[in-house]
Amino acid sequence: MKIGILIKEFEALSNYELRIIKGIIENPSLELVLLIQDGRKENDNPKALKNKLKRLLKSKDIFGKALFSFQCKIENKLLKEKSIVDKTRIVQELNKVDKIKVTPERKGFLDIFSKNDVDKIKKYNLDIILRHEFNIIRGEILYAAKYGIWSFHHGDNSINRGGPPGFWEVFLNQSSVGVTLQKLTPELDGGLVIDKSFFNRYWSFIKTRHHILEASVSILFKNIKKLQQGDFNPKKSLVYYNPLYKAPKFGVVLKYSINFYLKMAEKIIEKVSYKIFGTRYNCWTIFIGKGDFLNSTLYRLKPVKLPKNEFWADPFIFNYKDENYVFFENYNYKTKKGKISCGKIVENQLIDIVDVLEKDYHLSYPFIYKENEDIFLMPETNTNNRLEIYKCKKFPSDWELYTTAFEGEKVADAFFYTDKSKTKWLFINKKADFYTPLESELYIYKVNQQNLEDLEAHKNNPVIINSKVARNGGAIFEYENEIYRPSQANIDGIYGRALNINRIEKLTINEYIEKTIVTTYPNFYKGLISMHHLHQANGLFVIDAAYKKK
Length: 550
Description:
The protein is an alpha+beta fold.
């Protein structure tokens, strides 16, 4: 597949753009054949420094723009987001690619391309042109590639058009931030939607912007792969009813900046408060219930009793010799590290707590299962950059390493599911890159060997790119002859804000379809702010939920 890029000056390329170029270069099925650059002279180039200064001086809100620029620099310095791709090597590769300089006519916000420029581009028989430069594009260039020009709008184009990317979602406290991949058309804001994904926001605009830029890389390559498989069906956008968002004015920037520094102060106070008073923030606990979660009444549940300096999360039920145990993450606030512990269920409490597995790296999400007569434990070990499975030597606290997989990768919250045809599946969350969170992407693999040496990747991996539903929140369970996957709803700027129950409607190596049936929020007990895990077995269910502070 031949790809061209409407590209900026190489030194101005950001980390996510470098990752896209790197991904194209390293993929044997893709060929970067053309770079299309802005050839306008400085006087005509809208991005020339003196033209930027002229627009700034003519601006009706010069102080707002100045304050916004200053705030961005402060956040960039404080949060230290940086490029991790080897730019020198990528630039060396770019220098080997054919280049064309074009001189579109500038009319307001439009860049109108001439027939002469378009004819030069068409000679390369491109399949896709990626837009990473120029303003609103008009002219026959829109049809210069077989599948058109693909462009990101870093926002949900159904509710947020304009920019800056990620700012208004943070300022307006929207539940999530969208990213829309479009095929450009002649209609203003009327691009055809190729795909759309959603991501959690942060309290910082700069951190949010960085996050959605990096997360968009996976969306692009997922849809290039779908195109290669013959699945390309971009759709028209539905009615847009909000205003066009523009650069924030002085009053808005001032209010945002005040909130930013108040949030920083709050985080500092939290750290001091724990050291002085032992106050635990985002303190997870476990609730135990009888029956089926989907027809339960959560306000009747009572939390288990927690020791000081700990929180308990990610509970899994396991029956051993007719007694029910719960395996869970036991996080220590002093060491800032989790280990795996377990306790026996008595009424709605856990007794006889013992430590099961402890390493010099963080452990959580202890998925425990039986294979024939053997018991295995598959905890999350993403800080050790691989997936680990342990085999039980003596229940419950003696385990030996059995096998590993995904060496060198950041993976999390894995579990197995065996369907009615006895096909075994691995559901797992993975980080696409250093800056992308584990909550965004769900992968599925067909398991052909217990030791994970033969994993067959799902055709559409990652099957989901969406922080609202992607991250696993417990193992698949059956209810009234239907199967359900619990997952985290990472929204509202809060990790593990709520718990989704998703009905799986189709699972094959070529297709995965699920539908969210219900999203439950932590409103059932006083002081809770999050809930993100469910396990159901043996007529019981366990969930976890977090206090804002305890």
